[in-house]
Amino acid sequence: MRLKDKVSIITGAGSGMGRVAALRFAAEGSRVVVADNQKAAAEETVRQVKAASGEAWPSVVDISVEADARAMVDVAIQKYGRVDVLYNNAGIMPQADHSVIDTPVEAWDQVMAVNVRGVYLACKYAIPHMVERHSGSIINVSSFVAVLGCSVPQDAYTASKGAVLALTRSLAVQFAPHGVRTNAILPGPVETPLLVEWLLKDEAAKQLRLARNPTGRFGKPDEVVALAVYLASDESAWTNGASLVIDGGISVNYF
């Protein structure tokens, strides 16, 4: 098992890619703190992990709230004694997010609170425990839109993921001397409930985006999680500050 005896916090683990990650990490031997803002969703993920003979514990958290982020890390320490992996997976992409000229300020602030402040707060409270043990892996979910412009914009989401990418690099430099690695995964469009609700119901929007992808399809959550397992494992001991794009080739497609 690639993550045997590790303790992982996964945010947004109540559904979508986060739930897939919790199940996969547990199957690889990690004990998982399932963090989500929906109690029932977190508990269902824990139920599924335990049904598959894994070990997990729920933490109900609004990751944009400092007290919640601190409590989430405290759960890992109190229940399992340490934190080896922090997988900052939680993120939002509201329908009101368009161009800067027509995105409401409230939507912008909401995206920044979850997607950027949430990563900051989780790191703020997890990193000291990792530094204390001189060991840890932080995995930040950015996005391929952090490195590409888009003619169908979601500017708050794009800006937030660019911020996550920049923060990843800063953390990688600061904390690698203390044994803590930080890397970013930059997925292209992945078939999560978030994408399905927003995009796949609109056939024209779906085909517009698929036309840019050489593979002719969207990604699967397990394909992204497989990369996260590598980053969480000791196999990636010399991988630090990396921006790992996994998008089927969209970002290298000129026409």
How far apart are the termini?
Answer: 42 Å
Strand order of the largest sheet: 3-2-1-4-5-6-7
Structural class of the secondary structure composition? alpha/beta
Number of domains: 1
Helix count, DSSP H or I runs of 4 or more residues: 8
Q: What is the radius of gyration computed over CA atoms, rounded to a whole number of angstroms?
A: 17 Å
What is the CATH fold-level name? Rossmann fold
- Quaternary state, please? single chain
Report on the architecture of this protein.
The protein has helices spanning 16-27, 39-51, 66-80, 105-133, 155-175, 193-200, 203-210, 221-232, and strands at residues 7-11, 31-36, 55-60, 85-88, 136-141, 180-187, 243-246. The model has no long low-confidence stretch (mean pLDDT 95). It starts with 6 loop residues before the first strand and ends in a 9-residue tail after the last strand. A seven-stranded parallel beta sheet has the order 3-2-1-4-5-6-7, with helices on both faces. α5 (155-175) links the parallel β5 (136-141) and β6. It is an alpha/beta fold and 255 residues long. The chain contains eight helices and seven strands, in the order βαβαβαβαβαβαααβ.
Layout of helices and strands:
Layout: E1 7-11, H1 16-27, E2 31-36, H2 39-51, E3 55-60, H3 66-80, E4 85-88, H4 105-133, E5 136-141, H5 155-175, E6 180-187, H6 193-200, H7 203-210, H8 221-232, E7 243-246
Parallel strand pairs: 1-2, 1-4, 2-3, 4-5, 5-6, 6-7
Give a short synopsis of this structure:
This protein has 255 residues and is α/β, with parallel strands linked by helices. It has a single domain, classed as NAD(P)-binding Rossmann-like Domain (Rossmann fold, 3-Layer(aba) Sandwich), CATH 3.40.50.720. The chain has helices spanning 16-27, 39-51, 66-80, 105-133, 155-175, 193-200, 203-210, 221-232, and strands spanning 7-11, 31-36, 55-60, 85-88, 136-141, 180-187, 243-246.
